[in-house]
Amino acid sequence: MPARNQHRFLLTEARVWCALAVVVTAVLLFISPDSYLCDIYNRGDSGIFYMSGKAWMNGLVPYDDFADGKGPLLWLIYGIGYQLSPRSYAGVFWLGCLNYVVTLYLVYSLARLFLRGRRWPLLVAVLMLPAYFNVFVHHEIRAEDFEQLPVAASLLVTFALLMSDRVTRRQSVWAGLTLGAGLGATLMIKYNVTLMLILPAVIAARAVVKEGRRVLAEFSVCIIAGVLALTVPFIIYFWNVGCLDDFVREYGFNTINTTGFDDGLVSPKIMLFRLVDFYNLMGVLPGAVGVLLWAWLSHRLRWVPAMCFAWFLACTLLNGMWRYYYTILAVFAVFGFMALAQHCRISLSRLALAGLAGFAAVVCVGMRMLTYEDFVASRSMMTQHNAKVTFERYEYAKVFDSVRNPKVIYWHCLGNPELSVRSHGLPACRRWFQQFGCSPRMAAEQDSAVYSRVSDFVMVKVGQSDDMQRLRQLGYRRVPFPTTDYAGVMVIFAKE
Question: Which of 3, 39, 95, 452 has a C-alpha 20 to 30 A away from that of 46?
Fold first, then answer.
C-alpha cells in the first residue's frame, strides 16, 4: 500500500475508533451501574467479582482464600478496575468502555467483509448497542460482557476465512491465534462460552483444510498456542502459590456441581421451558431474527450464521437458568443489520450516519430508563428510598473500617458485597458468601469458619433469627441499623 493511501487508511480508522469510543462511553455513562452517575446499590454478580478482584490485589490467594466459581481472568479484570478506583466501580466502568469499543470495532470489521465503504459498517456496529444492552436480559456489566470481545473476534476471523477465495498462510496463522486466544480467554472467564467457540473453530478449520494439510497443521498449532498463551500464565501462578489443586477443584468440579449439571437440569423438557420464558425469549429474539433475515436476504454463506446461532443457543440452554446468560447471543443480531444494509440502495451521508447513530444511542438509554426498575434506584439522589439504602452502605463502611483490615463473611446468604466497596473489607475465608447451589460440604466449610471466629464481621439477612442467636452465643454483637426508618436488608454482627 502506498504511503499516502496508508496514511489515509490509518486516519479513517482512527476516526472510526474515536466515534465508537464517544458513543460507547456516552451510552455506558447512563446505563451502566459502574458509571460516575451511579452510587452503590443492591447489585448482583458484579459486586462479587469486584470483591474477588479486590481480594486478589490485596494478597489473598484465589480458590484458597476466596472462591466464587468464575475464572481468574475475570477476577484479574475486576482487580485492575479496583486498582484504578479502590473505593468505587469507576475503574471497572472504564474497562467496560474499552471492552465494548474494541468489541464494536470487531463488529464493524465483520460488517466490512460484506458491505462496501465504512459508513454502513459503522452504523451497523452502533446499531448493535441496543442488542448488546438488551433491557430484558442485561442489567449490569457481568462476565458475559467481557466475553463478547473474544466471541466477536472469533466470528470475525472465521467469516474472513470463509469469504476468502484463497486462504493465505498469514491469514490462517492469524485466525488460529485469534481463535485460540478466544478459547483461552473464555476458558479463564466462564467456560460455557468456550464450548460455544468450538464450532467457529471447526468451521474455520474446514475453510483452511482446502489449502493443504501443512496449512491446516500450522492453523491447529496456532490455535493451541493461543489457548496456552491465555491459560499457562495462570496455571504457572497457581502452581507457584500452591493452589493449583484448589483451582481445578473449585473452578472445575465445584462450578459444575453448583450449576445444575448433576441434578438433571439439562433435560430437553427443562431446556424448552427455559426457551419459552418471556425474558429469555427476548434475549434470544435479536440474534434469531438476525440470522433468519440473513438467510432470507443474503446470497453468501446463508446458513452458516444460523448454524452458529443454533449451537450457541443450545450451549446456553444447557444451563440458561438466569436471563443474563442469553446476552451472549446478541452478537448474531449483526447479521440482520448487515442483511438490511445490503438491500439499502441509498448512500449514507455523514449527517445521516450521525443522526442514526445518535438515535440508536438514545433508544438504548431510553429503553433502560423506561423498563429497568433499578435504573432509577441505582442513582442515590433520585429516590428517597435509595438515599436511605446508600446511607446505610456508607455508615456500615465506617463500621468496617473501625477494624484494621476487616475480614467479612456473608453467612447462609448470597449477601451484598456493596457493603465492602467503600471500606477495606476482605473475604474472611474461601466460603465468604453462600454460592447459588451451595453443596452441603461447602455450607459446612462456611459454618466452620464462622464457628472459628475468623471473621471480624458476619452478615446475615433480615429474618435469619436462628443464625443471629448463634452469633450472639459465639460472642458477636449486633450493629444497630444506621437509620430508624429503614429496616435494611442485611444485619451485621461484629466480633467482640
Answer: 452
